[in-house]
Design a protein that fits this description.
The chain is an alpha+beta fold and about 400 residues long. About 45% of the residues lie in helices and about 15% in strands. It has a 4-stranded mixed β-sheet with strand order 1-4-5-8. The chain has a 4-stranded antiparallel β-sheet with strand order 2-3-7-6, with no helix packed on it. A two-stranded antiparallel ribbon has the order 9-10.
């Protein structure tokens, strides 16, 4: 069975347009970073400028409606755009705005028309970057346990508490935070939450680095931060529904059609690097492990491809997003273990002399472990899958509302 994507005549024509525009906006000194999620300031600024040029075209958030700065592109066009950007080493939207990409669907579903114009258009044009602040130090993936308070005071909410940014490291702070907060300490669980857009330059906000196993994260402290009530998405005490739409995207509900660039780089590394007089990939035991890795990453790719098709074909989803997320998390651990079997202890050092592939393989080893948490742990994904299949319940849980 052929699972590959093939161009229609319309896709081929659009591909020519995309290639031409990317050639126009990509600087001549642009390079693919060994660790794209740990950029220096120059790389970060270059990617922001590329993002803004894509935003001018409506291609930074291509699926969103044109009236909100998106491109209103169909699935075939998004496929072409994604593939061509991958060829030059870019995700879309670039890694620095993962928060915006996950939250934009929620504002489309739950925001007022005025909020869509205010918050979506600047994000989709690359003018505003976002950190999605869901995690808190005490609660991890239990979003409903949020303790950061946002108490209504006239036309404002006064915010106090601490959040943890667990997304990609950026050398500059974001322009805004989209976050879940507790708006009513006396209301029942899930009915006591709100979803706020908070400008990062408001008085009372402090951002501090937080060193973790994978890379640097950030703690964000709010002390009597006054946020306009207009910035509350979805209405008072309705934040849980808004957050569920965000999480539906974060768990893989939109799908993905991209390749696993890290695996391609690893295959190339073992083919081009010699040990004991021959390429590493020539060893039969290594070849067996490479076959296992290929199967793992391709199964993960096909889960993402299926979900992408469902999203753009408007097929109602259920457990598919969490199924893809769960498989990807577990697959990453298996792949990192097989890398270790092939290369031994070299995989856990980024030493200039001994660390393979300029240290990115060591980084992958750490990332595979920590990636089990963001976007809901593997146990959370199992729970969602079970509930949506109706296991242990008389009524199946419905997927969150999406645009």
């Amino acid at each position: 069975m052929d699972f590959e994507l093939h161009d229609t005549p319309e896709m081929a024509s659009f591909r020519t347009e995309v290639k031409s525009y990317l050639k126009e906006i990509i600087p001549g000194n642009f390079t693919i970073s060994e660790r794209p999620n740990e950029p220096d300031a120059v790389q970060y600024r270059m990617r922001r400028e590329i993002g803004q040029r894509l935003g001018e075209k409506g291609w930074l958030y291509p699926a969103l409606k044109q009236e909100y700065g998106g491109g209103s592109l169909n699935g075939d066009q998004i496929t072409v755009l994604t593939q061509e950007m991958e060829e030059i080493g870019l995700e879309n939207p670039p890694y620095y705005d993962a928060g915006g990409s996950m939250s934009s669907s929620a504002i489309q579903v739950w925001g007022t028309e005025e909020q869509k114009v205010e918050f979506l258009t600047r994000t989709t044009r690359g003018l505003k970057t976002t950190w999605l602040l869901l995690t808190e130090p005490h609660g991890g993936s239990d979003l409903a346990s949020a303790k950061t308070m946002a108490i209504r005071d006239g036309d404002e909410y006064v915010v106090n508490g601490t959040k943890t940014w667990v997304g990609h490291q950026t050398p500059e702070p974001p322009d805004q935070f989209w976050t879940i907060v507790q708006t009513d300490p006396h209301a029942p669980r899930h009915q006591n939450l709100g979803f706020l857009v908070i400008p990062s330059n408001l008085p009372g906000i402090t951002i501090q680095p937080l060193v973790t196993m994978e890379r640097r994260k950030f703690s964000v402290f709010f002390e009597d931060v006054r946020v306009p009530a207009f910035n509350l998405i979805g209405g008072h005490n309705n934040g849980w529904k808004v957050a569920n739409t965000v999480m539906e995207v974060e768990h893989g509900g939109n799908g993905r059609i991209g390749k696993n660039r890290n695996m391609e780089r690893f295959f190339e590394y073992v083919k081009s690097t010699s040990f004991n007089g021959q390429p590493i990939a020539k060893d039969q035991d290594v070849r067996d492990l490479l076959a296992d890795i290929y199967i793992e990453q391709d199964a993960s790719r096909l889960f993402g491809l299926r979900n992408f098709w469902m999203r753009h074909a408007r097929v109602k989803g259920s457990y598919e997003g969490s199924q893809s997320s769960f498989y990807g998390k577990m697959s990453g651990l298996k792949i990192s273990s097989k890398m270790n079997q092939m290369l031994g202890y070299f995989t856990i050092t980024d030493d200039e002399q001994w660390g393979p592939a300029n240290g990115w393989i060591e980084h992958y080893q750490r990332s595979a472990i920590t990636a089990v948490h963001p976007g809901g742990t593997q146990d959370i994904q199992r729970t969602i899958i079970a509930r949506r299949m109706g296991i242990g319940r008389t009524v199946k849980e419905e997927a969150a509302q999406m645009e």
